[in-house]
Automatic annotation (TrEMBL):
<dbReference type="Pfam" id="PF01325">
    <property type="entry name" value="Fe_dep_repress"/>
</dbReference>
<dbReference type="GO" id="GO:0003677">
    <property type="term" value="F:DNA binding"/>
</dbReference>
<dbReference type="InterPro" id="IPR036390">
    <property type="entry name" value="WH_DNA-bd_sf"/>
</dbReference>
<dbReference type="GO" id="GO:0003700">
    <property type="term" value="F:DNA-binding transcription factor activity"/>
</dbReference>
<keyword id="KW-0805">Transcription regulation</keyword>
<dbReference type="InterPro" id="IPR036388">
    <property type="entry name" value="WH-like_DNA-bd_sf"/>
</dbReference>
<dbReference type="Pfam" id="PF02742">
    <property type="entry name" value="Fe_dep_repr_C"/>
</dbReference>
<dbReference type="InterPro" id="IPR022689">
    <property type="entry name" value="Iron_dep_repressor"/>
</dbReference>
<dbReference type="GO" id="GO:0046914">
    <property type="term" value="F:transition metal ion binding"/>
</dbReference>
<dbReference type="GO" id="GO:0046983">
    <property type="term" value="F:protein dimerization activity"/>
</dbReference>
<dbReference type="InterPro" id="IPR036421">
    <property type="entry name" value="Fe_dep_repressor_sf"/>
</dbReference>
<keyword id="KW-0804">Transcription</keyword>
<dbReference type="InterPro" id="IPR001367">
    <property type="entry name" value="Fe_dep_repressor"/>
</dbReference>
<feature type="domain" description="HTH dtxR-type">
    <location>
        <begin position="3"/>
        <end position="63"/>
    </location>
</feature>
<protein>
    <submittedName>
        <fullName>Metal-dependent transcriptional regulator</fullName>
    </submittedName>
</protein>
<comment type="similarity">
    <text>Belongs to the DtxR/MntR family.</text>
</comment>
<keyword id="KW-0238">DNA-binding</keyword>
């Protein structure tokens, strides 16, 4: 099931926050993404309805499928960020632009580009 770019950003944020902090709450996601708690609440409801996350009390957890998608998005982000930094782009700008780039290629094109760069 394909997600919108914003849904992928939420899954990536949840994964990054889990790696940094362990437990993730909606307020953590809002702060990380710079969005309102209301926006997070709506997004989490959508992601939960699609089976990508589960919310237990205040703890937001990726499901197996959600974790797989989040890891794929994070891999793309890191790949493009590192590529841009290696090309001389300032790290902050590279991270921002990588966030856009991670969503625009098909999986096949990404894998071929990654293999070509190896």
């Amino acid at each position: 099931m394909r997600l919108r770019e914003s849904g992928e950003d939420y899954l990536e944020a949840i994964l990054v926050l889990q790696q940094e902090r362990g437990a993730v709450r909606a307020i953590d996601i809002a702060e990380h993404l710079g969005v309102t708690k209301a926006s997070v609440s709506k997004a989490l409801s959508t992601l939960e309805g699609k089976g990508f996350i589960e919310v237990v009390k205040r703890d937001v957890r990726l499901t197996e499928v959600g974790a797989q998608v989040a890891h794929e998005i994070l891999e793309r982000h890191v790949f493009f960020r590192d590529l841009l930094i290696a090309a001389g782009v300032e790290p902050e700008l590279a991270a921002e632009e990588a966030c856009h780039m991670e969503h625009c290629l098909s999986e096949d094109s990404f894998q071929k580009l990654k293999a070509h760069m190896a």
